[in-house]
Amino acid sequence: MGSQGGWGQSKEFLDLVKSIGEARSKAEEDRIVLSEIETLKRRIADPDVPRRRMKEYIIRLVYVEMLGHDASFGYIHAVKMTHDDSLALKRTGYLAVTLFLNEDHDLIILIVNTIQKDLRSDNYLVVCAALTACCRLINEETIPAVLPQVVELLGHPKEAVRKKAVMALHRFYQRAPGSVSHLLSNFRKRLCDSDPGVMGATLCPLFDLITVDRSPYKDLVMSFVSILKQVAEKRLPKSYEYHQTPAPFIQIKLLKILALLGNGDKQASEQMYTILGDIFRKGESTSNIGNAILYQCICCVSSICPNTKLLEVAAETTSKFLKSDNHNLRYMGIDALGRLIKINPEIAEEHQLAVIDCLEDPDDTLKRKTFELLYKMTKSTNVEVIVDRMIEYMININDHHYKTEIASRCVELAEQYAPSNHWFIQTMNKVFEHAGDLVNVRVAHNLMRLIAEGFGDEDEGADSQLRSSAVDSYLRILGEPKLPSVFLQVICWVLGEYGTMDGKYSASYIIGRLCDVAEAHATDDTVKAYATTAIMKIFSFEIAAGKKLEMLPECQSLIDELSASHSTDLQQRAYELQALLGLDAHVVESVMPLDASCEDIEVDRSLSFLGSFVQQSLEKGARPYIPDNERSGMSHISNFRSQDPHEVSSHGLRFEAYELPKLALPSNTPISLVPPTDLVPVSEPTYARDIQPPPKVATSSDALSADIGVKLRLEGVQKKWGKPTYSSPAASSSSSTSQKTVNGVTHLDGVGTASAQTRDNLYDSRRQHVEVSAEKQKLAASLFGASSSKNEKKASSHKSIKGSTGNVEKSTTVVKTVASSESSKQGTSAPPPPDLLDLGEPAPESKPSIDPFQQLEGLLGPTPVQTTPESSVVAGPKAPDLMALYGDIPITNPSGSSTNPMVTNLYAANKNSQGATNVSTLKKGPNPQDSLEKDAIARQVGVTPSGKNPNLFRDLFG
Amino acid sequence: MINFVLLISRQGKVRLTKWYSPYSQKERAKVIRELSGVILSRGPKLCKFVEWRGYKVVYRRYASLYFCMCIDSEDNELETLEIIHHFVEILDRYFGSVCELDLIFNFHKAYYILDEILIAGELQESSKKTVARLIAAQDSLVETAKEQADSISNVIAQVTK
């Protein structure tokens, strides 16, 4: 159905589409579109255009805009079209407006009135069109204008309208949470809607709300679990099945919500274990959608309080993903592994070879995902291998965004796990050399600080060795062309401070190189300033040491050039340098002391030395200074922003003159059965790019060194994935001992101590994968191997199992008591505490499932009067079964029964073939008559199927 | 959340775009250029996902047409693949073995269908039947409206003759 009867557009439009289809180049296409724009501009301005013709013009405008050209001259006509009485034109108008306008466009104010009117229409299709437009166009300012009507529509008899109203309200919440905060209870009510589509749509806003704050929704856990159970048991109508999987999109959304609710909440998690086990068991790993559900299950299991049985199943599923030939699944497997190792780092070892395969795969997406995984599992034993790999990859890519990300990850890992300062400096040099413009400037400052302070408390010898090696490497690197500005600044600073320190290089040599830098980067004032100051330092060190230094001609010309520079900063530096040259050794030494970068500079923040001056002025009659915040007349400006959003919106535009927007009564807040206990989320630390605290002016050197110590000293380094709550104690202790062995010693030694364990692992894996190359194994060993020995691992994992089972046993009793109290409150029979340790077998069904909606209504207090006949059934006691509720919908709906019976037949046929092939693409039988018809029409239009567009005529599924 | 939907032909021609997050006209052109470059050059065996500017773009190829959706980094890629397929199945049912030409000449109808499946970047309806029923209801109303308009204009035309 549908497209029979041609395409319904004029010849002109078809010609346009055709000529664009045949355009050979972008330039040709642009020319065609520009001439079309001219035509449209002329035609559309004509006041007597028939309305149907206008509709086509608007569609042509949409087409022009879709091709990336500006059609703003026609926006106003699209807006006008939304006012039209005819539904066809109105829909076209709304479609065009939603495609053209962003929410901040000026024209939106003209549409609000139409939307208001249409929301009141008695034609539900008009209401639907208006609600769709609401979602796109209504901004924070205009929400109050439509809000009351949208809320009213939540009770509309048509489920399509209710669904769209829910989504519109969700959108309003996303735009301006404050404006709908008093209406959030509506979402809970809609969760018990009789239509599964509305219920499914309600999960979107609930997911958002729970993401922000889960504590008010803890009481819904049981309801979500019960809905999920019923969905998984195929209790929804058949039309919600997708390739034989029962309502997979709803299942996935529910799993996402459960993951949030169960995070860090033992009691909530325990309520989910049974259903999660069920879904794992039912999970169909042959179809794409089945795998999507399984993946979401893994995410959920790794987010809630860990359960050993479920984790085992999750690990098993993950390994299936990883072993698959399908790249998509391997990608998901890597992601899942990244989630699981947060709970149990040992899982990674089993899959080391699969991970390395992914790392070396030509598929860029897979490679990047694997880098993300490696980033998550970096520790001090494997940091060198991982960072080296990352840098190697970073050098070869052009993608700016990803390069920035991977560079900052390298920096972060290096700062956190560097085995030695020497390695750190080398790594930083590489990062700066290849991505210097992309890393944060604080990283450069941190590097300078590290070189200046060295090991901090350790001996001076090591420090100076570090510095001279830095100077060596920088003098070498200076030969390379095209260095990033930030890196050059670091180089200049280090050369100025330490270039001549160990006497290896003469002062004039260093000055010469610095002059070269300044000369080569004539346009970069910052680099020139750094170079000049570095030259000044070298001169003053020499003068202070009593040596006589010849002025190099290139240096003199540099000074001359800079003293006439447009930049006052450069000028000042040049004059200071000249002035310094004329001073005697003693003065120079106090002006420019040697190695003074770590000295404290005391800043008198209260400016007390000005006290006498202020006093004098006051005595002469000057007005006393009034601090900013005490000045009257200024206060309201600073307070302006802090007004609550509700008030601000009421000051904004009003769309209903002389009538206050009605505030809905604050709804009765549901009684939460679960006391919000320890809800502090155990989030892993985030590693933003700006980890460094902003450089302070007056920090004591102690504080400074402590700061660096945090970055580079290894004793205190926290295990990255080792959340203290979840990781087994044995594992963390073992890894900390291996860290200790590495610390202070060079890294080679560290590998040596761990090599016995590595060999052990190597041997083990070799038995399994005889064909795997030695090189890969070596990489595997360096990535995974050196963490713990086999025996140790077994012991620790055993321990963790024991520990958690103990906990589980303990808490089941808690659940029992809680459950019994709950059941007495609700008056319904509570489920028996699920047998948590026995997920492998089907849990005994001791009772018929409770209707989740009934439960919910119980929670909401007095049941709101339902308008729809179906929902009155919900409240009725005799129909606890979802199936019964949904089953009759297609029958009661007249349009449902009147739809073409062919459709269902066709669909059934599709499904059969789908089931037979079991592949994700739908295999459709060829439909020769259809394609012949289309061919004929196409020929009429003049599009020839041969030549450049042979694929045009192949069916999409073909 | 889905940030935008793109339909690109193998030649890099845009067939349909729907933006759920605000993008200026300039940004849109840039996004399309960037993504078509990346996606069209990928081999058939590789992942159907591309990480891009902190988002993920999931794409699926049907004959000569690429359906792409841009999702947030924490979304489920496999699910998005199936949302694309869900959309294509509904298109297929509506047009009767859909081909690229249908979408070229009837892109506004494809927009209407998309509006019934996705709203504000979220999947609003996962039942094919419900979507088909709604679209049919809209179409039938539009058809009657059209006929009326035709007949009125005919009458006017005859009277004025």
Automatic annotation (TrEMBL), chain A:
Region (Disordered) location: 721-745, 785-874
UniProt keyword list: Golgi apparatus, Membrane, Protein transport, Transport
Protein name: AP-4 complex subunit epsilon
Biased composition (Polar residues): 802-829
Organism: Dioscorea zingiberensis
PANTHER family: ADAPTIN, ALPHA/GAMMA/EPSILON (PTHR22780)
Function: Subunit of novel type of clathrin- or non-clathrin-associated protein coat involved in targeting proteins from the trans-Golgi network (TGN) to the endosomal-lysosomal system.
Comp. bias (Low complexity): 724-738
Domain Clathrin/coatomer adaptor adaptin-like N-terminal: 37-582
UniProt xrefs under SUPFAM superfamilies: ARM repeat
Family from the record: Belongs to the adaptor complexes large subunit family.
Main location: membrane
Automatic annotation (TrEMBL), chain B:
BP terms from Gene Ontology: cytosolic transport; intracellular protein transport
Mode of membrane association: Peripheral membrane protein
GO molecular function annotation: clathrin adaptor activity
Matches recorded under InterPro entries: AP1_sigma, AP_complex_ssu, AP_mu_sigma_su, Clathrin_sm-chain_CS, Longin-like_dom_sf
Domain AP complex mu/sigma subunit, chain residue ranges per copy: 1-140
Cellular compartments annotated: Cytoplasmic vesicle, Clathrin-coated vesicle membrane; Golgi apparatus
Keywords: Cytoplasmic vesicle, Golgi apparatus, Membrane, Protein transport, Transport
Gene3D superfamilies to which the protein is assigned, alphabetical: 3.30.450.60
GO CC annotations on file: AP-1 adaptor complex; cytosol
Alphabetized Pfam families for the sequence: Clat_adaptor_s
Chief location category: membrane
Keyword Thylakoid recorded: no
UniProt KW Protein transport keyword: yes
Membership in a protein family: Belongs to the adaptor complexes small subunit family.
Subunit structure: Adaptor protein complex 1 (AP-1) is a heterotetramer composed of two large adaptins (gamma-type subunit and beta-type subunit), a medium adaptin (mu-type subunit) and a small adaptin (sigma-type subunit).
Function: Subunit of clathrin-associated adaptor protein complex 1 that plays a role in protein sorting at the trans-Golgi network and early endosomes (TGN/EE). The AP complexes mediate the recruitment of clathrin to membranes and the recognition of sorting signals within the cytosolic tails of transmembrane cargo molecules.
Protein's UniProt name: AP complex subunit sigma
Source species taxonomy: Eukaryota, Viridiplantae, Streptophyta, Embryophyta, Tracheophyta
